[in-house]
Amino acid sequence: MSCIEWETCSSEQLILALVMACRSDLNFSLCRLVAVAVDTDRIMKVGLELAGWKKMPADSAVHIKGKNINKVLIGIDIGTAELMLAKQLECDAVIAHHPIGATAVNFYKVFDTHIDYMVEHGVPKKIAREAVEKLKERIETRNHASIYSDVVGAAKALGMPLVNIHQPCDEYMRQVILRAIKASRTEYVSDIVKSIGKIPEFRHAATKVRVRFGNQNNKAGHWTLVVAAGTNGGFNIAKAYFQHGVSTVIYLHIDYGELMKMREEKLEGNLVVMGHLGGDSIGLNGLAERLENLGIETVRVGILPNR
Ligand SMILES: [Zn+2]
Q: pTM, whole model, 2 decimals?
């Protein structure tokens, strides 16, 4: 692989090129060249590769560009305090999970993923669209009011490169959880709860995987894992699933008000809620490991361990 191809090659190809270069007589100076080739765009590319995607979603962005990155601080919610911490720990960049800056305003745009999931599980497209429109309107209205520029402004003032990677990390998390569920029994709701609870990040969490609605002794029936669609589907999306043949819905988190609506309307179905921190930690551990494979040192702040 030649140097000009580096911009378009995957991280795995890059590592292979590095190993081959180190074995050849080009050796050391070339290794250094690769090591300093990591910039904020490459970090984003590693995030996209994690999900197997090519296009950056609306909830992820490079907010402050940077290059020559050797050490990064990774956290779920990044504020000015974490940026200062990164500076103190001599990090070259910060990676946030949750949307910040303009992506915090625009992230409702990724909710259409819910429509794909719902249609895939037998919900008519029109009903899926209506449920997602309600969710979009609720979140877009809320975020429209937010003062979204503070963290990105602080990073700019500090000269700290800043990236946020949300949906790609969540998609990786979805794939990990889906594999874990499918690898075991799925006859009862409790089987699903058990399989999820064995994943290290959930095992380390102070929260437990909970059946918030329905009963763990019920048959799971047709089940669906609803994550990596921006946010949980709340009441309307769960209702659409339950009314169209899905008996068990699995969310990462849910608002209390949305859960109460499910109880008031006496919906029939089971809702498993896994726990926000455990789930987000899976995605960020996946990202951190891939960055470490590129020779970047990571400081994972507040992320639960994956072993
Ligand atoms: Zn999250």
A: 0.89
Centroid of ligand 1 to alpha carbon of 13 (angstroms): 30
Q: Residue 160 and residue 128: Cα distance in Å, rounded?
A: 41
C-beta separation of 249 from 225 below 8 A: no
pLDDT at 151: 98
Query: What six digits make up the tokens of 169?
Result: 């990390």
CA of residue 205 to ligand 1 center, whole Å: 14
Q: Give me the sign of the Cα torsion angle 75, 80, 82, 83.
A: positive
d(CA 252, CA 273): 5
> Ligand 1 centroid vs 276 CA: distance in angstroms?
6
CA of 275 to the centre of ligand 1 (A): 10
- H or E element in which residue 141 lies: helix 125-144
- Per-chain residues with Cβ under 5 A from ion ligand 1: 280
- Report the chain's terminal Cα–Cα distance, integer Å: 35
Cα(207) to centroid(ligand 1), Å: 15
User: Which pLDDT score, from 0 to 100, does residue 28 have?
Assistant: 46
Block mean pLDDT (10 aa), the chain, length 307: 42 51 49 66 98 97 98 98 98 98 96 98 98 95 95 98 98 98 98 98 98 98 97 97 98 97 96 98 98 97 97
Predicted confidence at residue 37, as pLDDT, reads: 79
Centre of ligand 1 from the C-alpha of residue 125, in Å: 26
Q: pLDDT at position 1, please?
A: 35
Q: Distance from the CA of 137 to the center of ligand 1, in angstroms?
A: 19
Q: Quote the ligand 1 centre to 23 CA distance (angstroms).
A: 42
13 to 2, 27, 35, 54: CA distances (angstroms): 11, 17, 14, 16
Cα–ligand 1 centroid distance for 283 (angstroms): 10
Q: How far is the CA of 164 from the centre of ligand 1 (A)?
A: 12
Domains of the chain, CATH where assigned: 3-105+151-165+281-301 (3.40.1390.30), 167-280 (3.40.1390)
